[in-house]
Specification:
By secondary structure, the protein is of the alpha+beta class. Helix content is 18%, strand content 26%. It has two domains: 74 residues, no CATH class; 80 residues, Alpha-Beta Plaits (2-Layer Sandwich). The strands form four sheets. The chain has a five-stranded antiparallel beta sheet with strand order 7-8-11-9-10. It has a two-stranded antiparallel sheet with strand order 1-2. The protein has a two-stranded antiparallel sheet with strand order 3-4. Strand 7 and strand 8 form a beta hairpin. The longest helix is centred in the middle third of the chain and has 13 residues. It starts with a strand and ends in an 8-residue tail after the last helix. Bound molecules: zinc ion (ZN) (3 copies). The site of one zinc ion (ZN) has 8 residues, from loops. One zinc ion (ZN) binds next to loops.
Length: 165
């Protein structure tokens, strides 16, 4: 681990000096010898900020300044966070958030125009059923998006769909 930092050549974020790529936008720190996972004869341009796989310019999409591969191009990404779940049911949102946090995922939720840390408030508000018109979006760190979605798929299978009380 190095204390040195360098600046991403694309988004100007300060990143650790030994980084292979910028975790925020996916730009490779150096492209020499890095090839696209789909086109072995194409030099990679950057990595998808979700799966960290290197891709060439034909494969990557740059969305709001961040590289995404075709498989992840539909995922909403805000800086280093990727949207793993969306619901208009706040109880559902709290349960999903709780399940993710219990399993070691860092989570932020967004239900207005700003991203806020709400974890600390959950103990107070309890599990009242209230349905908000605005969707609650649940974000996890982009590099753990696939893991979080796989976890939620399994978790939901094991959860009664019933409201309970
Ligand atoms: Zn960058
Ligand atoms: Zn990807
Ligand atoms: Zn390619």
């Amino acid at each position: 681990m190095s204390e040195e930092t360098m600046q991403c050549s694309s988004c100007r974020t300060a990143i650790p000096g030994d980084s292979d790529f910028c975790p925020l936008c996916g730009t490779l720190a150096q492209t020499e010898g890095v090839v696209c996972v789909t086109h072995q004869d194409h030099e990679a341009l950057g990595v998808c900020v979700i799966c960290s796989e290197p891709y060439c310019s034909d494969c990557l999409m740059k969305i709001k300044g961040q590289y995404l591969c075709a498989r992840h191009s539909m995922v909403e990404v805000i800086r280093e966070w990727a949207r793993a779940y969306e619901t208009t049911d706040t109880t559902d949102a709290q349960m999903i958030q709780g399940a993710l946090e219990q399993n070691g995922f860092r989570v932020v939720t967004q239900n207005t125009s700003s991203v806020a840390y709400v974890g600390a408030q959950l103990g107070e508000t309890g599990f009242q059923r209230s349905v908000s018109k605005r969707p609650v979006k649940i974000f996890v760190p982009a590099d753990r998006f696939d893991e979080a979605v796989a976890f939620l798929t399994e978790w939901q299978k094991g959860t009664p769909v019933d409201d309970g009380v």
